[in-house]
Amino acid sequence: IIGIWRITYKPSILKAFNPWEAFDYLLIEKTRGFYQIGGVFLSVTGLEALYADLGHFGRWPVRAAWFFVVFPGVLFNYLGQGALLIVDPSLVDNPFYHAVPNWFHWPMVVLATVATIIASQAIITGSFSLVSQAIGMECSVPVKIYHTSKTIIGQIYIPTVNYILMILTIIIIIGFGTNASITNAYGVTVCTVMVFTTILYMCVMHYTWHKPWYMILPFGLFLIIDGYTWASNATKIPTGGWVAIVISTGFFIFGFCWFFGQLNLRRFLKIHSQTTSLHTLALRLGLSESNTRQNSNSSVNDLPIISTASRIDFHDEIDSESDDEDIDVKNKGSLPRVASQVRLVENVPIKRTSAISSYIQEQNNIPDHTISAVITPSVGCFLTSSTKHTPHVFENFLSRTHSVPQVIIFLRIEHIKSSTIEDDKRLAVKQYGEGIFHLTALYGYSENRIKPFDILTLARTQFNLPIPDDESKVTIFTPNETIKVSTVGWASWIRRWPLYFYAILKSLYPGAAVNIKLAPENTINIGILAKLK
């Protein structure tokens, strides 16, 4: 409203809508105009915070907030300040407050202070969203994430990021001292982001959407504009812009090294994998051989159902990003309804295949398709991300100790898009032979405290699994990867230095799920040596 009021003092300010006015000004002023673009660019900074803060709501909330709130307000405000400066250039020291009537000066100070706090909150919450997405893409180490809303999945709080922002803010304020100095760093940062965004968008159009070049080239106009403004802002690098470059480069190296290391770790585990199908595990261990042969030609539909339920759609609820397929529950439409509302438990037939049998014989040199292992009177719970194969931690434990617990439980934890889930819909259980079970436990995004023993207790209550009441009698096995960078081969130091840095990060963040609460006295870490190169 104040901006519209000031526009009436000098309506000729509306000529600013004509792009030729800006182009003509740059042609006349030349060098001076080039340097002034860096200052003018600050008028559009802050837009990235709008997207980062509202991005998890989708594109339509961002568009609505921009076109109906932010853009009109900013546009009229700057036009009003420009009209005021045309009328009285001496007010250039602070045109924003000079545009306000005298009687509204102090209320505007209060309003501006509140707006500053809100804007800083947008930066903070936007940082939370970016880090959360980086963790999902494995470009950041896993950190604790708190979901502060049971209705909006994107409303989160990350303590680690909050403290990092606090420390960096204090250091920058003390180091720069004045607002004018900070603007030099801020302009370089935002302008660089816009340049990279334009380039990446054009790459997506070509490589992902497969758009023809004649549709992509017009976006080069935006790249020219971004490049010109970036060149103008680059002149501020010696006077403070270098700080932003150092910070952004540091975070890039951090994220790239973690992503590159995780990529190589997955490749190593895949190449050197000793995991096998859960269908053949009982056969390998020599468990229930008679039952195995009896059921080898039967289908899942012919097997006895221990317990069934009126169940929710398992595929729709799981937001799975694992390397395995979703759980396949058979006879979905014919399951009877019972009051307990628990999930289907299946006795899965053991598949005897010549390929796997030959592989086991070749690897272990043991006849009759079994391996030598001592069964210990205990319950072992192995954390896994697969629904069809044994985890690496189990295979390492078996190869080193040549023993298996009497009751083997493979526990997989999945998070769904709902905030919570009822206990009677939480578990899906399958049995792969005598004493071998696979559990998938569903948790909502707001359920932060996950205890494996509580899951096992629930499985015992609902499915009568042979799990003791005493937590000390259940051992949880978790993987502990140790990274060793190989110096043998053709790989150069350019390829090795990210792996060295990743090895340091991996030692600081070993990879245990941050939301899973494990009792140290009942947990055994199984080491996995990964030689990366």
Automatic annotation (TrEMBL):
Mode of membrane association: Multi-pass membrane protein
Keywords on record: Ion transport, Membrane, Potassium, Potassium transport, Transmembrane, Transmembrane helix, Transport
Bilayer-crossing residues are 64-86, 106-131, 152-176, 182-201, 213-230, 242-261
Q: K+ potassium transporter integral membrane domain spans which residues?
A: 1-273
PANTHER family in alphabetical order: K+ POTASSIUM TRANSPORTER (PTHR30540:SF83), OSMOTIC STRESS POTASSIUM TRANSPORTER (PTHR30540)
Protein localization: Membrane
User: Which residue ranges does the record assign to the K+ potassium transporter C-terminal domain?
Assistant: 377-530
Q: Which InterPro entries match?
A: K+_transporter (IPR003855), K_trans_C (IPR053952), K_trans_N (IPR053951)
Its predominant location is membrane
Would you say which domain of life the source belongs to? Eukaryota
State the protein's name. Answer: Potassium transporter
Q: Which GO terms describe its cellular component?
A: membrane
